Amino acid sequence: MPSEARSKSTSWFTRIILGLIIVAMAGFGMSQYSFDAIRGDQVIKAGSRTVNSAEFRREYDRYKKRAEQQAGQPITPEMADQNHLDTAVLNGLATREGFAELLSKIGIRPSDKLVAAQIGRIPEFFDPITGRFDKKTFESRLAENGYAPPTFDAVLRDEMSTQHWAVALQDGLTAPRAYGALASVFALESRDLSFFTVTPQSVPQPAMPTDAQLNAFIKESKADLMLPEMRVITIVPFVPGAAAAAVANAPIDPAELQKRYAFRKDTLSKPETRTIVQIPVKDQASAQKVTARLGAGEAPAVIAKSLGVDAITYDEKPLTALADRKVGQAAFKMTPGQTSTVQGDLGLAVVRVLNVTPGREVSIDEARPMLEAEIRKDMVAEKVYAQTQAYDDAHQGGASLADAAKKAGVPAQTLGPINAQGVDDQRRQLQGMPPKILEVAFSLPAGGESEITELGDGAYFAVRVEKIIAAHLQPLDEIRPLVTNAWMRREIVKALEAKSEALVARLRKGEAIDAVAASSGFAVTRAPGLTRQTAEARQADLGREVLGRAFGSKPGEAWTTQTPQGIAVGQVTNIRMDASPTAARLAEMNRGQLAQDIFREMAESAQAYARSKLKVKTDPERARAAAGFEPLAKTKDKPAEKKG
């Protein structure tokens, strides 16, 4: 949902674009809408507003990037297509544009002055030296995120319009007291629960099935038992782990070690750091006054404020951290406590050194373990590269995949049959199989071989498809244990259901639950005074399924529900309402949350109304094309051509 995307995003730009709007302005949902054809390069048309293919692609890329950040993994084009990301973005943009157009038509528009003031308050657009809004910083930050100033202005204007509408609507909105009272009653009611569990051990074990029964079961469960397309593949892996063993005892070249130390010495060593205060001044006269005031012990921030500037403090920073190169060079020649006027690249300034922390140079012996590890890592990478070149040379020279691998000193491994998810024909998941290898293997024809392909983390591979096995249903002899176990489980479940239905029928006729349970040797579990607040703590011993039925049934109603242990048979014998002062306090507390829920529903209704009222039009095919997907198949049966 869009609200989740806003709460989880860490990008300053995303926060600016999405803002603090309560309404789900982005609206990236999967709601169903009718799509009307529109002309020209228009993916969306909402009144006077249009979104073309390039604009849609930019919005799609931003949404996909946020989704990848939340998921913590990349989203492949196949995954995006399967999950209809283009449709989600299309619906979201159509709703957003329609709602913004409606707000504009009814006169909710921020002035240019208000928009400019809002932009001027965004810290990411401030100059780091002056601490004020800077046009160049503003434009560069927008360019980094693929926005031009006019586009950002339009997005911010829409955001502010929606925010003003939301604040006006929400201000003073209060849920009726009756709503709070109902929520309080719902939250504080307590229930007395009694149940027992009919376990698999309580029903007779079925006899072993005949072949006829198993074949009938296979026919009934054809969809579940069908094996998908599978392949037998041969993989040639070029991995650092195997190469590392070959170079583990190789000597380290002293010259290379010395070379790396000389190159890395500055970064490995700790540089000298200083605490420096810099106060910008206009001229030498001002500089002398600032120097005198600093000498008198006046605080730098107070002095800077009186001059209408900000004091810049560098706390324990190296020379490279100072923004003004000339100021830094001068400051790092001064002694602690010294104050000096410096003409820097960015203007005149009074600089005072408050503290100096000497640096420390790392010796080659201290850096040796790290540098040797780096060298060995490079040796491994070189070894892997040499293996790929040896394989490629042999393969290009006419050697088969297996022979080329042998000449490169790399083992070729044949696996399968295996499906695209890494599951073999015995329905076992193959552990440690990289998805990239399967992806490449299932893109090749029978007998096809891949080029050397990067796997990541310094590893490569080549793969050959030895055989393709079409999707099929295995004969009984190949899956007899699997089918037998499934058939036995089904028969046991049938027996459990029959027994539990017979027992619950006795409860429905009025027989006591203790008598019904005792007649079959079961013990009754009781949970008196169960509330929704205490239910979570009881989930471990009562079970989620039982608790769900307990709070969803009427007093005296008998029910059954499947649990991991069997089938539970139970009933709620009593329901009590809480009429204490706590209920009254909770009722009043609930009104705030209920008001937010009411507002959210009103906002969603307003968005739906805007889209319907303005007859927002979309072009899903153009949206798919802009997102980089193939057109949806629209094949129609055509009459066969007549032969002349």
Structure description:
- It is a single chain.
- This protein has helices at residues 2-8, 12-18, 53-71, 77-82, 85-105, 112-119, 135-144, 149-170, 177-188, 211-220, 222-225, 240-247, 254-268, 284-295, 300-306, 325-331, 364-396, 401-407, 435-441, 476-508, 513-519, 532-542, 544-550, 581-613, 620-627; strands at 44-46, 49-51, 190-198, 230-238, 273-280, 312-317, 339-344, 347-357, 413-418, 453-456, 459-469, 525-530, 558-563, 566-576, 617-618.
- By secondary structure, the chain is of the alpha+beta class.
- It folds into 4 domains: 2-172 and 604-627, Triger factor/SurA peptide-binding fold, CATH 1.10.4030; 190-220 and 478-576, Chitinase A, domain 3; 230-250 and 366-469, Chitinase A, domain 3, CATH 3.10.50; 270-357, Chitinase A, domain 3 (Roll).
- The strands form 4 sheets. It has a 4-stranded antiparallel sheet with strand order 12-3-14-13, with helices on both faces. It has a 4-stranded antiparallel sheet with strand order 9-4-11-10. It has a 4-stranded antiparallel sheet with strand order 6-5-8-7.
- The two termini are 59 Å apart.
